[in-house]
Prior knowledge:
The protein is mainly α. The chain has one domain. It contains 7 helices and 2 strands. The protein has helices spanning about 10-25, 30-40, 40-45, 50-65, 70-85, 90-110, 120-130; strands spanning about 70, 110-115. It has a two-stranded parallel sheet.
Amino acid sequence: MEKNLPTYNDIVEGIKLDLNEYMNEDGFTITQASAKILEEEWQDINKDDFIKYSYLLNLALDGIEQNQLSDFLYEKLKFYGNDILKIEGNESNLLKKDFITYQEKLKEQNFDMIETSVNTKSRIDYILNQNK
């Protein structure tokens, strides 16, 4: 990983702070807040796959905590799932552990799947593919 990139815990804490701000102060839904975070953090997200997966996973877990999962997060994590489980590095065990927790929560189905617009999904695809 490059120097000056956020750690896994930095990402987790940053997401919680940003979600709190966007939802409680700006009145966004969890889906709107998640998309805004991805849009604002696109440069870091596209520097490293570990960071990309960490953002997607933690946004999904926070959504599930609020009983809502954005379909764009579900679709991306389904697509990247095998890559997440194969990733190596200093903090990969934290990511893998949380991905397994995410998979368990999916099986419980204690959330609503939130359908997003084609425009939102296209924007997220664009953001996540800036380094390709």
